[in-house]
Amino acid sequence: MSVASTWTPKGNYRDMWVYCEQNHGKFVTCSLEMLGEARRLMDKYNVDYKADEKVVAVVFGHKVDGLVQEAFEHGADVVYACDHPALENFILEPQTKLLAAAARGKDHYKSYDEPRYFLFPATNNGRDISATAMAALESGLASDCNVLYISDEPIKHPVKTRRNEVIEEIVYPRILHMKRPDFSGFEWSTILCIDDPDKDFHPQSCSVIPGSFKPLERAAGRKGVRVNVAFNLGEKDQRVKIVKRERLPIEVDLTKREVIVAIGRGIGSNPTQGIKLGVELAQALGADVGISRGVVTAKYPVDASVQQYTKEIRQIGETGQMVKPKVYIALGISGAIQHKKGMDKSKTIITVNSEPSAPIKEFSDVYIHGDLFEVVPKLKEAIQRALGGKNGGKV
Amino acid sequence: MHSMNTVVLVKGVPDFREGKVSFKEDNTLNRGATPTVLNPNDRLALAAALELKVKHGGSVRLVSMGPPNYKTILREAMEVCGDEAYLLSDRMMGGADTLATAETIAAGIRKIGLPDLVIAGFKSADGETGQTGPQTAWVLDFPIITHVVSLEVDEKARLVRARRTAGDDIEEIEAPLPCFIVTDPGFTAVFRSATNRLRLLRLGEETVARASKIDSVFKMWGVADLGVDPKKIGLKGSPTIVNKVEPIPVAAKERTAQVVDAKDAGQLDEVARRIVQLVRG
Ligand SMILES: Cc1cc2nc3c(=O)[nH]c(=O)nc-3n(C[C@H](O)[C@H](O)[C@H](O)COP(=O)(O)OP(=O)(O)OC[C@H]3O[C@@H](n4cnc5c(N)ncnc54)[C@H](O)[C@@H]3O)c2cc1C
Ligand SMILES: Nc1ncnc2c1ncn2[C@@H]1O[C@H](COP(=O)(O)O)[C@@H](O)[C@H]1O
Q1: Do the beta carbons of residue B106 and residue B73 sit within 8 Å?
Q2: Does A207 share its domain with A289?
Q3: Are residue A233 and residue A288 in the same domain, yes or no?
Q4: Which residue from A6, A95, A220, A341 has the fewest beta carbons nearer than 10 Å?
Q5: Are A182 and A189 contacting, i.e. CB atoms less than 8 angstroms apart?
Q6: Nearest-CB residue to A350 (from B126, B171, B271)
Q7: Is A47 found in the same domain as A195?
Q8: Contact assignment for B280 to A131 by CB distance below 8 Å
Q9: B251/A359 CB distance under 8 A
Q10: Structural domain for A265, as ranges
Q11: What secondary structure letter does DSSP report for A229?
Q12: By the 8 A CB rule, do B120 and B6 touch?
């Protein structure tokens, strides 16, 4: 067996950059979670590779001094800051141009070509700018990851490692492994961003599911290097204008609910009836109704009377609403990771599932094993009894 | 003026509807046994294009990158809206990640001729990356508005006015044509006048009829037709690879569930009392 050769990139790359999204002058929680994970990854990286590479935060907005300091205190060694009134609200095009210019440019801190790694929050804005920034930098991007690690990786790939018609094994050093749960929530794909003979692909980057990582404990007074990014954009970089911004009247707000009944694909054999049962249970408890993404994508042909309960606005989870009620009752929901993210902070989780141990059992307080079509009517009656009288008793 | 040219990007995805989707024992998708259908979110992109066609006339061209059998996807899309359909299909395009897809689609759009508007769906039901739209806009150098819930075009001023969701806020946006739009799952078309509702009806019938004879308005282009750099497309042009697929281990136990047998009425009563106590407490 021949010894695998090791890949050497053509360019000079360093550091892990983190796009720290802010909204109305506050970091979104994922920004601090990513800084924490970046700190842990780079501390280990620096030991493993006897290196001295940094965690670099990117903070764009208006009046960002407080945020810059907060980034240092949450693990950033360096902050690229751009402070300008035009950045008060997020607009994709100018932010992407500033970001790409900073990532490519040279300055008093940075002499390397481009960041080695780049993390973005998997929020609406974070997802958008991850996509456009990586298009601008012509590099690869994995979306919605929740596990990251860095190691050397031997790769045999029909295209990337083909030399003279032979597929060789080549060791790619310092590869960021980005694990992404798939649409079932039960399988991980590990995505890698790797160079090929024609081109280096850096930064290796991904968006990170909010709630995947823990922020560091805040280290008050921790200092770092601030690099000011000049706001040197013209009219042609600011084609999209916000004319007005106002509070959205939220149609269904589950985030402030104390009791939620959530319905999943377990209703599949009779969706209309399943939803009715869930709604009745919710009504008995003065609760509101949420759904898993499974119900959204299933596109059940349900009666008009319950259609409103199949709409995406009721979705709970990573890409839906994040709820933390006192009581969360999950009917026919398997507990996919993306659903879990949106409800596992509930105080008490009660589950009804026909499988003896669906994954959701591991984060349920009460696991009622049974068919929801039989259990829910009984449970509703028992609750009405406990409330005192069939219709009486107030919650 | 009636001169709006729109391109809509559509994609085929596994049919996740109940009764259609087939999962294997380990909960992973059985692709072979699951039919391919039009990506549900792309219906909203098509609805936006239809609304503009009702109000402004002009043409709507559908573009998809995928295997030759995606013609059926284009046909499905055309039943909602579409005058012509373009399938970008070539072995060399296979295995593309989002950036390589964006490069290919942008090349297809350039060959058709740059339109006034390109509209994409939010996310595909299988990939769910939401990256392809913004990346295609970037390659085309079009201004982009994402999460659009409603849309208006001012032909005279050559402006798009859109409402988009931004977290808990709603924004009113203005951008020049040509422009790239990504529709939000909450997109809704609005038809106030009776004239427009009649036009909607007529255009709806027309497009369904056209879809049934798609051949006369269908083109399939390969790499040679597009003249796109082979280094930028397909598996070769994709910066990312999927290195490994593995089951996610069951999450570490976070809570110890009290297991209740649903057949035991006494136990159910106890759970009910506990729920009521928690809700009141
Ligand atoms: C990028 C991305 C983001 C995502 N975001 C979200 C998100 O925000 N929220 C979300 O929920 N999902 C999200 N998903 C989808 C997620 O991976 C799962 O596919 C989804 O949560 C599954 O929904 P479910 O539990 O209802 O369905 P399933 O996984 O099909 O589970 C159905 C459950 O019902 C049980 N059951 C069946 N019949 C009965 C019966 N008669 N009585 C009782 N129980 C029964 C089964 O045992 C099973 O446990 C996302 C996926 C991706 C790729
Ligand atoms: N192969 C493709 N052909 C045409 N349009 C696509 C393709 N892939 C993605 N799109 C468009 O990009 C949107 C987002 O897809 P995705 O990035 O896969 O989540 C889809 O809703 C489509 O409008």
Answers
A1: no
A2: no
A3: no
A4: A220
A5: yes
A6: B271
A7: yes
A8: no
A9: yes
A10: 259-388
A11: P
A12: no
As beta bridge partners, residue B219 has B86
In the numeric block, which tokens belong to residue A251? Answer: 């149609």
pTM for the full model?
0.88
Residue A250 predicted with pLDDT over 80: no
Amino acid at A305: S
Question: Which domains, ranges and CATH numbers included, belong to chain B?
Answer: 5-232 (3.40.50.620)
Q: What is the pLDDT of residue A390?
A: 46
Question: Hey, of A167, A171, A183, which one would you mutate to test binding to chain B, going by the most B CBs within 10 A of its CB?
Answer: A183
Q: Mean pLDDT per 10-residue run, chain B (281 residues)?
A: 86 84 71 86 97 96 96 98 98 94 98 98 89 98 97 95 91 97 94 93 96 97 95 94 87 88 91 93 76
Atom of ligand 1 nearest to the CA of A317: 8
Give how far Cα B254 sits from Cα of A67, A208, A338, Å. 33, 22, 16
Asked whether residue A373 is assigned to any structural domain, the reply reads yes
Q: Which residues of A315-331 are buried (b: 16+ CB within 10 A; e: fewer)?
A: bbbbbbbbbbbbbbbbb
AA letter at A375: V
Mean pLDDT of A145-168: 92
Report pLDDT for A395.
52
Q: What is the CATH number of the domain that holds A156?
A: 3.40.50.620
The CA distance from B200 to the nearest CA of chain A, in Å, is 23
Q: How far is the C-alpha of B209 from the C-alpha of B212, rounded, in Å?
A: 5
In this structure, the answer to whether residues A24 and A173 fall within a common structural domain is: yes
Same domain, A287 and A226: no
Run of H or E residues at B237? helix B234-237
The whole-number pLDDT of residue A293 equals 95
Residue B165 CA, ligand 1 centroid: distance in Å: 26
Q: What is the CATH number of the domain that holds A352?
A: 3.40.50.1220
Ligand 1: atom nearest CA of A143 is 1
How many domains, chain A?
A: 2
Q: If contacts are CB pairs under 8 Å, which of residues 34-63 in chain B contact chain A?
A: 40
